[in-house]
Amino acid sequence: MTKLTTLGEYVILKQHEYPHATGELSQLFGALRLAAKVVNREINKAGLVDITGASGLENIQGEQQQKLDVYANDTFKAALLARGLVAGMASEEEVDFVAFNEAHTAGGKYVVLIDPLDGSSNIDVNVSIGAIFSIYRRVSSPDGPVQLEDFLQPGNRQVAAGYVIFGSSTMMVYTTGNGVHGFTFDPSIGVFYLSHENIRTPEEGLIYSVNEGNYVKFPEGVKKYIKYCQEMDPDSKRPYTSRYIGSLVADFHRNLLKGGIYMYPSYANAPTGKLRLLYECNPLAWLVEQAGGKATDGNRRILDIEPTELHQRTPFYIGSKAMVDKVEWFLHEYPQQ
Prior knowledge:
Layout: H1 7-13, H2 24-44, E1 54-58, E2 64-66, H3 67-83, E3 86-91, E4 98-99, E5 110-118, E6 129-137, H4 148-151, E7 160-166, E8 170-175, E9 180-186, E10 191-196, E11 207-209, H5 220-230, E12 241-242, H6 248-258, E13 261-264, E14 275-276, H7 277-290, E15 294-296, E16 313-314, E17 316-319, H8 321-333
Parallel strand pairs: 3-5, 11-12, 11-13
Antiparallel strand pairs: 1-2, 3-4, 5-6, 6-7, 7-8, 8-9, 9-10, 13-17, 14-16, 15-17
Helix pairs in contact: 1-2, 2-3, 5-8
């Protein structure tokens, strides 16, 4: 019988590769793993109970919160709080960061930033959705309460990042700066098993992912790049295939494994882009770089952007390195007037 490696075993096995390894990071992964299992259970029975649809509330972005958004946010918050290692959490669903002031969290060395349920508007139509997480070491004194500066760190300071995709199977994919590893959930026994070790994304891909419904609003360089993707050129295997699910995690996961580019440019209705730097772009950017890909805002490396606010947005181009290089070339060749 083939030896199967669980997520918990693998994290402990690789613990020596973590900077400042103390065993705490493996406990943090335990909290995230538990929350992912609970959320997975609720997603899979969402059609059987009254938890699909809108909650009647709006998040800080002014977007309608889905009931499962709220449930997932509360689940991850409770799991992280229970471990006593996290000083605070910031979430796409919260107006401000949440300081964990309970006695057992005193001296917590880490903060977690999370998008607890990405693409939740797709739940009602049974489309893959996900959760994205990012872990930093706090920079303020551990003797005092967590501060805003602990969360406003550039992505190049992450100590761990990853996502969970809830689809035909549930997977957790993560990096600690030593490659990207994926684990598939076996619901019959409630265990994540190693299924994708040292994921490498292709240098060149054949898929482009963008909401072409916004085409007329896109920067000229992006329009030119989309036309380039659609041109007939057998030598470069064009035209490329257009694939856009509308769930960032699902689109990213497919392109990570198969090769491709995901784009969410700025446009008139979203002049600074729509995706959140801290909760979505930074963790996925680190993952893709660890897998050999690239992430940029069209001008600079995503991981080098100095954040100034919790819910900061940015244009986002991520995927196979050659494809991201190409769209950057078009953006520079055809600057906005």
